[in-house]
Amino acid sequence: MEKKGTKKIETKRLILRRFTEEDAKDMFTNWASDPEVTKFLTWPMHPDVDFTRNLLSEWITHYEDGAYFNWVMELKENHEAIGNISVVKLNERIEEAVIGYCMSRAYWGRELMPEALKAVMDYLFDEVGVNRVAACHDSNNPKSGRVMDKAGMKLEGTLRAAGINNQGISDKVWHAMIRSDRI
Ligand SMILES: CC(C)(COP(=O)(O)OP(=O)(O)OC[C@H]1O[C@@H](n2cnc3c(N)ncnc32)[C@H](O)[C@@H]1OP(=O)(O)O)[C@@H](O)C(=O)NCCC(=O)NCCS
User: Fold this and answer.
1) pLDDT, tens digit, for every residue of 125-136?
2) pTM check: above 0.90
C-alpha cells in the first residue's frame, strides 16, 4: 500500500479536495447542523459554526499523514462545499479502507454521492493500492445502501445490534468491493 493521503480528485460535477477553515460556514449550514443529515450518524449535530471551525482546524493538522483520507465535496457548478467523504478506518494489515460520507439535504437525489464514492474507490484501489473498500449503514437508512450499490459494492450482510448512532443501537448492513471484483 502507498499511503498517499488526501489528494485532489476531480469528477464530472465535483472537486474532492482537502478541507480548509474557510469551509466551516458551508459545512455547518449545509450538513453539520441538519438533524436529518445527522440522524443515522455517529456524531451529534454541531451547535454553532465555531464548533465546526475548531473541528476543521483539528482535521487540517492530519493532512500531513499519508494514512489520512478526508475530502470535502465541492460542487463545480457553484463552488459550495456540499458534503464530506472520508476513510473512517484504514486496516493496514488487510489493506482495507472503510468509508463514511454525508451530504447537504439540498443536493440529495442527484447521485452526487455515488459519483464521489466511485472516484474515491478508484483512487484507493489504483493509487493507494488497497485490496478492499467497505462501508456500512444503519438498516433503517437504506438510502445509504443505494449509494454503495450504485458505486459497485456488493452486499455482504447484516451485523445485528452491532452499531450505535444518534438513533441508538442499530443493525449494521455491510457492503464492500474487493480488488478481484473489479472488471
Ligand atoms: C445517503 C446520502 C449520502 C445519499 O446521497 P445522494 O447523492 O442523494 O445519493 P442518490 O442520489 O444516489 O440517492 C440514494 C438514495 O437516497 C434516496 N433519496 C434520494 N433523494 C432523496 C430525498 N430528497 N429524500 C429522501 N431520500 C432520498 C433514494 O432512496 C435514493 O435511491 P434511489 O436512487 O434508488 O431512489 C445522503 O442521503 C446523505 O447524506 N444522507 C445523510 C447522511 C448519511 O446517511 N450518510 C451515510 C451514513 S452510512
Assistant:
1) 999 999 999 999
2) yes
Cell of 81: 462545499
Neighbouring residues of 17: CB distance < 8 A, sequence distance ≥ 6 = 6, 8, 9, 71, 72, 74
Q: Whose CA is nearest to atom 34 of ligand 1?
A: 146
Could you tell me if the CB of 175 is within 6 A of ligand 1? Answer: no
CATH tag for 9-134 (out of 3.40.50.10470, 3.10.290.10, 3.40.630.30, 1.10.10.10): 3.40.630.30
Q: Give yes or no for residue 109 CB within 6 A of ligand 1.
A: yes
H helical segments located in 33-140: 35-38, 49-60, 112-123
End-to-end CA gap in the chain: 20
CA distance 133 to 177: 5
Q: Is 143 in the pocket of ligand 1 (CB under 6 A)?
A: yes
174 lines ligand 1 (CB under 6 A): no
